[in-house]
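Can't paste images in this forum, so I'm doing it all in text. The chain is below; anyone willing to post the predicted structure tokens underneath?
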Amino acid sequence: MKKTKILVHKMFCKAGVDSRIYGSFVEHMGRVVYSGIYEPGHAKADKDGFRMDVIQKVRDMGVTAVRYPGGNFVSNYNWMDGIGPVKDRPRKRDLAWKSIETNEVGTDEFMRWAAKARVEPVFAVNLGTKGIEEALSLLEYCNLPAGTYYSDLRCQYGRKEPYGIKTWCLGNEMDGIWQIGHKTAEEYGRLAYETGKAMKLLDPSIELVVCGSSMSTNATFGEWERVVLSHTYECADYISLHQYYGGQEKGTAGFLAQSLDMERYIRTVAGICDMVKAQKHSSKQINICFDEWGVWSIPDKVVQEDTEKHPWQIAPPISEQIYTMEDALLFASMLFSLVRNSGRVKIACQSLLTNISACIMTKRGGDVWVQPNFYPFAYLSAWGRGVVMDTRMDGPSYEASGFSEVPYVDHLVVCNPEKSELAMFFVNRAEEKMQVEIDIEGFEAGEMIESVVLCHKDKKATNQENHECVRPEHMQNFICRDGRIQGELEPLSFQMLRVSVGM
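Text version of the structure:
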């Protein structure tokens, strides 16, 4: 049996984990909002129409921040359509998803939902069909005290105190030719800088995210980041990255190897940020907001065919992907990559929260259930807090998908000094059991607190019919003795170990 050895030493640390790395994303797309988080008349809906059964799942998942309202949707969105009396709001044709937007849910409704769900809002402004003036008016509406036109509108519509939204995204995927109002890097960089400069004049307390590439395979990737940052470095705090992985035709080994591309993507963008920093002789570090990420398990053409055949519906059920146990493993490794790079990645948004490439699924008028990928996210959010450890590993690997060395065992270790424990997370990419031995040095020897495994004998198993089909189990498959942890990972599994340590 193959064996992987891992060394964890108290002196080898990377960075603290920003809680916002466990964020998600709500866009006006398909059933994410309507019959996802919002369904008036549902048996579990509150007086505001929000499904409390969904909110409970959001809390159980450990979501800390949510980006809103898009996504491609935001690039043709007039935020003023979504404020004021609902009966007076216009119905509009959303060009991004060829659907009818009723505008029943807008800024104030989302902020009420965010408070109920206990998540921090991350707002995006329209830099596709709109610009500086609209961004400033939305910022005033949300963040400024009463006394001027837009802040007084907020008071008029029932909210006296400012919302104080901290983080703002300057557009969405502006490098993509599919985007309404697509721009070149020069065009976007200039607009983003002028918009960001004005927004920080209005509210100096905010943080700004500029658009990076919408995927690592874009022809403009790299040069786009360089040009955009050359314009926006002085006003930007973060640059965004987006990435989805699919391609089950690669086979399990190739499919699960794709998280290594995510690592490469993050390192490359961080390097470009530092290059521009050096060119500008700046002391400021630009961090990363990975505000769309996930597993995309169906071809894009399926999504487009649905909307082409049946355009202009209200909340059409598009791209409602059903995830397998196998998908959950790639999802977990992608989340490992984000947390492992916490020195640079401060915000991340799993995409999307409900129904579309989601962890949480709903039925109109019916129940709510969770997909296999829900569980790795929930366990990392609950226990992957504190300081990421800079581990050393020696173990077997394989070659796949353009990578010469893919470890069979992917791992992440986080130290929580407040709880005096180490949380260890593993993905076994192998279709056989893997022996793992972890040496803990510099800490006082502890004991095993919890051992949880997510696996299934059928890697294609889903929770669609039997909502309890793929779920975690407590399993005593590791022992802790004399500062050494030994055990066997189940084939194609996700595992969490929690070990007490003396600090």
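Confidence is low (pLDDT under 50) at residues 300-305. The radius of gyration is 23 Å.
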